[in-house]
Amino acid sequence: MVTTTFPRLMLEHAAQRPDAPALREKEFGIWQTLSWSQLATLVRELAGGFAAAGLQRGQHVVIIGENRPRLYAAMLAAQSLGAIPVPLYQDAVAGEFVFPIVNAEVAFAVVEDQEQVDKMLEVREQCAALQHIWFDDPRGLRNYSEPGVNSIDTLIESGRAFNAAHAGFFDSEVAKAQASDVAAMFFTSGTTGNPKGVVHTHFSLIDRAQAGARFDKLTHREEVLAYLPLAWIGQNVFSYAQWLACGYVVNCPESSATVHIDLREVGPTYYFAPPRVFEALLTSVMIRMEDAGSIKRWLFQRFMAVARRVGPARMDGNTVGLLDRVLYALGNVAIYGPLRNTLGLSRVRVAYTAGEAIGPDLFSFYRSIGVNLKQLYGSTETAVFVCLQPDHQARADTVGVPIDGVEIKVADNGEIMVRSSGLLRGYYKNEAATAEVLTAEGWYHTGDAGFMDAQGHLKIIDRAKDVGRIGGGPNAGAMFAPKYVENKLKFFPYIKEAVAYGDGRDKVCAFINIDVEAVGNWAEKHNLPYGGYTDLAQKPEVYELVRDCIEKFNADLAADDKLAGSQISRFLILHKELDADDGELTRTRKVRRGFIGDRYQVLVDALYGGKGSQYIETQVKFEDGRTGIVSADLKIVDVKTFPAMRSAA
């Protein structure tokens, strides 16, 4: 039973292991270490500064930036006073901050740098309560004279003076907190409508963090790389909740551009990444192998064949023949070990992926070279940890078994229901939305459709509300699961994003985004010149490449009794990459299918109207805030479908 809070956990580590490293940050190419005792001192000073500025128990503090030690300390300082940190996505445009800041009546913000300060100043007229903005990185801010804008250094100095005048204040405030108090609020990515503030207590977050730690036998000796947005609860649980529960070391990269280098330098033992990160790592390796010499390519291909045959069985604890053991050991010296080192995964003991489905080939690749890659299932509302895969039961088509403290049932309509001590307290200022997802008996409606298999593993098919039916034609009445279709298409290395339509229609059609790196490399190998994404995407050769992928997908889907009707009949390749800044993706890169359908209605109509092409102009937003127009005459291509292979009666 959890009876503690995050600040108390921090103080316990500081008392028991004062000189042990708590956080590391790479600055100017050098790793700087903050010990637990140094962290405790920093948190006391920041808390004093917050108190001097008027922060009260129950108020919200916005935290925006990359993973930085002083932003972590600011979260702990706010929690020490009974205030509630609200991390927001650092790559969001200024306008996206207005709703959460106004909704949570935020008066205090702690941000990373000039970029985030500028966003706060841009929205301050719309956010009347926002009075205090503190920044970590002073570069570019020397001449700013806006009222209420100060550095974290100023906040620390103020805190020292406050603590000197109020001896015992910090400890008494920490002692007041209860495990049932609100610890943090996370805004959902909002695939439809405004995001919702998910309220979590110290109890719910720490309980799930500890359950996950017990499942994988995590200790204070783990090393973690914190490189995903702190606003995403997945990163927050791995690098904040479990960090404080276990006392391990969290490493903060120098920048997003140096993550791969920093990954190799840190050599994490506990690693978490969405499938797209694992895909990008593998793509970079395969591109380099294509450029390697013939002998190296030959060795790679031969030993990878051994790895695919032997590796997964070894990871699952199965017996392997003597000859295969010898060949795998040779491959480990020549290929797998150096490859794991190149990927930065040489020390990984446990690696997880979640958020989207991962392709079986990708999943098998990492396990075959000795990386203990597994899947988990959870959400913001469940504090992440619902199902995890045991070490010797990792499969690409399931998301694991319920862990300690979790009950799962499947509703009559196929929706997954969860009851857990890690459930949200509710949605902030939204009782109606809370009542929709939480039953009186304590069950949470996940919104996901799936089932438990014979081995007790959970299998997710799609979002329950998105599962539809084909409306006419030879497949009338067949199940249509758009997310399932989109995820399977993204298993192909040349396809980065897909958006499928078909509910209530006579066939399934899709928008495709190509992976410009993978397709660009393919184009160079085939001496195909191109002048940017739009030009490359509309090359006839690229259409044939994508058509081949989709026809393979259709052939595979034909073997599925339930989903054979979801085969794709027509597709087009979009003239631009789907972008969160244009509202087409959420900040966690989930497709906003309804928004995309409305924005590109002319393309949807062209797909279903039998057209062979369609001209379109689209306004796009660049990173510096400017807007522009991207236009193209998009080809529309028919794809071969296959008759369903019915099971024998």
List its salient traits.
Rossmann fold, five-stranded mixed beta sheet, GMP Synthetase, Chain A, domain 3, 649 residues, five-stranded parallel beta sheet, alpha/beta
Describe this structure in words.
Among the domains are: 6-272, Rossmann fold (3-Layer(aba) Sandwich), CATH 3.40.50.980; 467-638, GMP Synthetase, Chain A, domain 3 (2-Layer Sandwich), CATH 3.30.300.30. With 649 residues, the protein is α/β, with parallel strands linked by helices. The strands form eight sheets. A five-stranded parallel β-sheet has the order 4-3-5-6-7, sandwiched between helices. The termini are far apart. Helix 2 (36-53) crosses helix 3 and helix 12 crosses helix 14. The longest helix is centred in the middle third of the chain and has 22 residues, at 294-315. The chain is 39% helix and 22% strand.
